[in-house]
Design goal:
Layout lengths: L20 H9 L4 H4 L9 E2 L21 H11 L17 H4 L5 H6 L3 H8 L9 H28 L4 E4 L20 H10 L8 E5 L6 H6 L6 E8 L15 E5 L5 H19 L3 E5 L17 H16 L5 E4 L8 H14 L8
Parallel strand pairs: 1-2, 2-7, 3-4, 3-6, 4-5, 6-7
Subcellular location: Nucleus
Catalytic activity: N(6)-acetyl-L-lysyl-[histone] + H2O = L-lysyl-[histone] + acetate
Enzyme class: hydrolase
């Protein structure tokens, strides 16, 4: 069952450099708030992706179970299924700027990413500590900055397009807080999205975070501990990383799952607790962290949810938002099976087929 947990309570641009003249020029160009300048229109499908999302680092990315090419694989499958016709149909985000990151992150944390040892700990790839930081910036942190920019752009698209939904084919870095990264999460895209929405002037006063990744979302929970304008529903395997007891104080409705929870129990608890949370909080925006590390066989999530269970989960979340006219942005978060990309693509196609993605034919 679900239960309530109540809370008790000058920028250095060189840190963004990738180490080459061409890349440094790109970093210089990224000095302004370019993400906010991309126009939102009803004529585009509110799916956010660009090829730079992929982490490619001389094969070192294979030392972590995370599928570094997941977004690209999903994108190709959506094209194959006819949901996306051309690259111009979707949104391609800009790399998030240092100025934008400092809206949440501390300068001390951003500076810490200049050291490969610190990044190696966050990425959980020990050999990165021996790699010059300029290459770490270009091959790991820059793709993550594009994905973070994608989360902000997707949130804007869900809010401003009039369509009521958007999906970022990346992001969901829920272990990162303002001053600490971890669990392959170097930037706090969820906290950044919350702050952007709250300051948008669009009347977003009650944000519901629905975190259905298999792991507790301790990063943004630490950031939003005192913010009563945010309601956190977090459904996770309580016996795995991060087991952050302090961060749990921010959760308004916790659903703690045992290892090997199956579809029937999982979906029953989700449907009850999400409906309860929406009725109680009456949100006017939903951030959906849709991790697929809940799949059976995932080496880190240790739950037993089938692909069909993931499809039904996503359908219920989207239907719950659409029926109440609540804008929703979906972030992909974790998922450590190679089959995860196909499951996600199939789920998005199912949303289209069930008329839960307005304007997508």
């Amino acid at each position: 069952m679900c239960f309530r947990l109540n809370s008790t309570a000058s920028a250095d641009q060189s840190s963004m450099s990738s180490g080459t003249d061409e890349d440094d020029k790109e970093d210089e160009a990224a000095g302004g708030k370019l993400t906010a300048e991309l126009p939102i229109t009803r004529d585009r499908i509110p799916i956010v992706y660009r090829p730079e999302y992929g982490v490619r680092f001389l094969g070192l990315q294979k030392l972590h179970p995370f599928d570094a090419a997941k977004g690209g694989n999903i994108y190709r499958l959506l094209k194959t299924n006819g949901l996306i016709q051309t690259d111009g149909d979707v949104y391609a985000p800009n790399e998030i700027t240092l100025e934008e990151l400092l809206a949440v992150h501390t300068q001390r944390y951003i500076d810490s990413l200049k050291w490969s040892l610190n990044v190696a700990k966050i990425a959980e790839i020990p050999p990165l500590l021996f790699v010059p930081n300029c290459f770490v910036q270009r091959s790991y942190l820059r793709p993550m900055r594009y994905q973070t920019g994608g989360s902000l752009l997707a949130a804007r698209a869900a809010l401003e397009s009039g369509l009521g939904w958007a999906i970022n084919l990346g992001g969901g870095f829920h272990h990162c807080s303002a001053d600490r990264g971890g669990g392959f999460c170097p930037y706090a895209d969820i906290t950044l999205a919350v702050k952007m929405l709250q300051s948008s002037g669009k009347g977003i006063e009650r944000i519901l975070i629905v975190d259905l990744d298999a792991h507790q979302g301790n990063g943004y929970e630490r950031d939003l501990m005192e913010d009563r304008r945010v309601f956190i529903l977090d459904m996770y395997n309580y016996r795995i990383y991060p087991r952050d007891q302090h961060a749990k104080l921010a959760i308004r409705r916790a659903v703690e799952l045992k290892p090997h929870t199956d579809d029937e129990e999982y979906l029953r608890k989700l449907k009850h607790c999400l409906s309860q949370s929406i009725a109680e909080f009456e949100p006017n925006f939903i951030i959906y962290n849709a991790g697929t590390d809940i799949l059976k066989g995932d080496p880190l999530g240790l739950l037993d949810i089938t692909p069909e269970g993931v499809v039904e989960r996503d359908e219920f979340v989207f239907r719950s938002a659409l029926e109440r006219s609540i804008p929703l942005v979906m972030l992909l978060s974790g998922g450590y099976l190679r089959s995860s990309a196909r499951v996600i693509a199939n789920s998005i196609v199912n949303l289209r087929d069930k008329a839960l993605l307005p304007t997508v034919q």
